[in-house]
């Protein structure tokens, strides 16, 4: 989904290995990767940010400036 010129996808991080895999995929993206939940925003390229989102948020969205659909396809709902 495109929102305000940015790509926004709902994702699901179930296990600790999902957090590691997501972070590795995010690091490879050529643009900023942000995890979003309402007004809350975390760095998607940070292991601690991704782990915090997994533990604290009921719904997690990944926001990017470029279409990184295939990088995060495994985690999308």
Catalogue the unreliable spans. none
Describe the sheet with the most strands: 5 strands, antiparallel
Mean pLDDT: 94
Q: How many DSSP E strands?
A: 5
Number of helices: 3
* Succession of helices and strands: EEHEEHEH
Please report which band the strand proportion falls in: under 5%, 5-15%, 15-25%, 25-35%, 35-45% or over 45%.
25-35%
With strands numbered from the N-terminus, the spatial order across the biggest sheet is 1-2-5-3-4
Short recap of the structure:
The chain has 77 residues and is an alpha+beta fold.
Question: Any overview of this molecule?
Answer:
A five-stranded antiparallel β-sheet has the order 1-2-5-3-4, with helices on one face. α1 packs across α2. It contains three helices and five strands. A hairpin with a 2-residue loop joins β1 and β2 (6-11). It is globular. By secondary structure, it is an alpha+beta fold. The chain has helices at residues 16-28, 47-56, 69-72; strands at residues 2-3, 6-11, 33-37, 40-43, 60-64. Helices cover 35% and strands 29% of the residues.
């Amino acid at each position: 989904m495109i929102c305000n010129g940015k790509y926004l996808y709902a994702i699901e991080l179930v296990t600790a290995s999902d957090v590691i895999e997501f972070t590795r995929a995010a690091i490879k993206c050529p643009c900023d990767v942000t995890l979003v939940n309402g007004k809350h925003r975390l760095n998607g390229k940070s292991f601690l940010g991704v782990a915090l989102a997994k533990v604290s948020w009921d719904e997690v969205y990944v926001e990017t400036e470029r279409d990184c659909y295939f990088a995060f396809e495994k985690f999308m709902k």
